[in-house]
């Protein structure tokens, strides 16, 4: 069977079945309602019993159709998200509003099925090319306040997409919050272990947010430059995050200490050996990054392909919490931003890519790692990373 016409995955087939079922419910309910209302004028009150029996049968059948459809899409859809699911539950008991909510659910899941089916077809059509099969494996380095987890991947659907196209993926596995220097030591040890255990020679590093600062320090100060073929930083505040300066200047120190203590205690229970909330935050400030750049320089590293990426969120309402809250604050202090970091700190290395898709949504700090698993109109984050890694392959890396 041709890859472009092959059947979609089981999840998508189930999702598509759920959408069709809900569409059948929508139209048959509309037709049945009109028909029963018309019959009521003719049959009631003389033949009210047959009319009532037919009505009860229709209600029973339509209820079965509805619940089969709605349960199926709730269990299989990724794009519904928590907001639409809650809207569906709340509005389900309100006449008229429930129909509007149902149309929203149908449209969202239908678009998801179409998009993901085309995505699967694209991957099948190029499977033999292995466009992401780079010479050196890919090391994904997370940002601050997150850990690499098998249950909830920091990078969303990106690693799976890269692997389907031939990439070999590793993760930084470093602490969620620590100073740049401490994180760099962890990452340097991790890279050495990967190279020693696999014999791969080098790694291609893709680092998000603070992870980009950590890797620059690791290369400059921890002696792993020979093990790194390329470093791509994603939305990294190379010159500092003004919002971090604002927070430190606005929140009283006792409150800062309480937040730090609570975070460090929670992080320790989740696996961090020496979590340091305040050290991480201070290293993200403009003063902190200025100090880091004085120590390790801001230029690229000889023999290593260095590049950076940045993006812009266009409206607070199009970002997910908490970035919808922080976006206007960052815009007030720093101008156009991704919900956390403005444009000026992003550029670094030999090339800089600025992402600002058409439309009125934009791309947030979290969108760049597919944290919410959201299909964004005008920007396919998974395909962006496929292109990025494919370019590394074309460079012989």
TrEMBL record:
Residue intervals passing through the bilayer: 24-44, 51-74, 86-106
Alphabetic keyword roster: Membrane, Transmembrane, Transmembrane helix
Protein name: Triacylglycerol lipase
Taxonomy of the source species: Bacteria, Bacillati, Actinomycetota, Actinomycetes, Bifidobacteriales
């Amino acid at each position: 069977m041709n890859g472009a016409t092959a059947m979609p995955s089981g999840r998508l087939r189930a999702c598509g079945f759920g959408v069709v079922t809900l569409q059948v419910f929508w139209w048959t309910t509309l037709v049945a309602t009109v028909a029963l209302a018309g019959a009521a004028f003719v049959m009631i009150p003389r033949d009210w019993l047959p009319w009532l029996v037919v009505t009860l049968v229709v209600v029973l059948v339509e209820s079965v159709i509805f619940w089969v459809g709605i349960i199926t899409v709730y269990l299989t859809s990724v794009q519904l998200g928590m907001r639409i699911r809650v809207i569906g539950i709340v509005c389900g008991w309100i006449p008229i509003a429930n129909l509007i909510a149902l149309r929203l659910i149908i449209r969202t899941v239908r678009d998801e099925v179409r998009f993901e089916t085309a995505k699967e077809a694209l991957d099948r059509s190029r499977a033999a090319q292995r466009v992401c099969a780079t010479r050196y494996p890919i090391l994904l380095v997370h940002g601050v306040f997150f850990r690499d987890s098998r249950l909830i991947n920091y990078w969303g659907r990106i690693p799976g997409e890269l692997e389907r196209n031939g990439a070999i993926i590793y993760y930084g596995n470093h602490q969620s919050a620590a100073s740049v220097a401490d994180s760099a030591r962890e990452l340097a040890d991790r890279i050495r272990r990967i190279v020693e255990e696999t014999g791969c020679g080098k790694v291609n590093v893709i680092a998000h947010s603070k992870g980009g600062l950590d890797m620059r320090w690791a290369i400059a100060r921890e002696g792993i430059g020979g093990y790194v073929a390329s470093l791509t930083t994603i939305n990294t505040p190379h010159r500092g995050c003004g919002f971090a300066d604002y927070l430190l200047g606005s929140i009283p120190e006792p409150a800062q200490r309480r937040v730090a203590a609570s975070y460090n205690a929670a992080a320790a229970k989740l696996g961090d050996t020496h979590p340091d909330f305040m050290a991480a935050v201070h290293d993200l400030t403009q003063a902190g990054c200025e100090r880091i750049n004085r120590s390790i320089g801001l230029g690229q590293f000889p023999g290593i392909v260095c590049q950076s990426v940045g993006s812009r969120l266009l409206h607070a309402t199009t970002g997910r919490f908490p970035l919808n809250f922080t976006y206007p604050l960052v815009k007030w202090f720093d101008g156009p931003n991704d919900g956390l970091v403005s444009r000026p700190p992003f550029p670094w290395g030999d090339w800089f890519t600025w992402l600002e898709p058409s439309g009125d949504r934009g791309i947030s700090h979290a969108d760049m790692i597919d944290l919410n698993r959201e299909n964004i109109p005008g920007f396919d984050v998974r395909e962006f990373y496929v292109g990025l890694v494919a370019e590394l392959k074309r460079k012989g890396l």
